[in-house]
Structure formats: C-alpha cells, structure tokens
Amino acid sequence: MANLPDYYFRVRENGAFVFRIDTENRQRRIDMDQIAVVNIRNGEIKPHGNRTLSDTDLAEIRAWMEERTALLARRDLDDIHRTIDHMNLTAQWAQSRASDDQLEDITDALLLAMHDLRSVLVRKKADRLEKGEKAARKDQA
Asked: Where are the alpha helices (DSSP H) in the chain?
C-alpha cells in the first residue's frame, strides 16, 4: 500500500475535521479515526469525543493550521490580482464590444461597486500614511 500520511484534514469553511489514518490492521484497509475539529479563525482545536490529543497530534494540527492559513492568504491575494485582470478585461469589453443594452444592465451596479471599493482603498491609504507620519515624528523625537 502506498505510504499514506498519518493525518488527514477534511477541510471545511472555518477549518477542518482531523482524522488519524490507520493502515496497520488485519484487513489492510484504511481506517480514518476522527480525533479533532479545528477552527482556523479563532485557533481552536477541539478533541473529538472524549479523546486526549497527544503532543504529536497537536504539533501536526498546528503545523497544518499554519500551512493552511498561509495558503488561504496567498489565495486571497491571487483572487485580488485576478479581480484587477477582470476589471481590465471589463473595461476593454465595455469599450469595444458591449451593446447599449448590456451596458445599461451592468453600469449602475458596477459603478456602485467601484465607488465602494475606491472609498475603502482611499481611506485605508490615508490611514497608512497617517501611521507612517506618526512613526516618523516619533523617531525624530
């Protein structure tokens, strides 16, 4: 049988169900024994049932949580870069191929979404600039 990992993480919305994999049984079948539930948002690890998690279990779970958090952060940023591409493609479509009816259908919703995004970005940029100025003044003092 192929070398399987000792743990399997069934991903869910906020984390995962954690299973210990066992192939060392008489039937040589794969047994998946749920040992915990993980919540990535709050960092909580709940043992399943009356289980006590070993130090190895906890170390594997925490390592998975770190890797998963990093993966999700990379995906978020990748999604934003794709959004920028879609905005550029949308501008090209609106300029070169969109009919008047199509533009009428999407213009208000797209303008409102863009206005909302612009407002958030401008406010966040101003906050970062203000923090930078405060830090510079603090360093000069």
From this structure: 55-96, 100-140
Q: What is the pLDDT of residues 78-113, one digit of tens each?
A: 999 999 999 999 999 999 999 999 999 999 999 999
d(CA 120, CA 114) in angstroms, rounded, equals: 10
Backbone angles phi, psi at 73, to 5 degrees: -65, -40
The distance of Cα 29 from the centroid of its chain, to the nearest Å, equals: 33
Q: What are the phi and psi torsion angles at 7 (to 5°)?
A: -130, 150
Other CB atoms within 10 A of residue 28 CB: 8
Q: What is the pTM of this model?
A: 0.75
Place of tokens 């259908």: 105
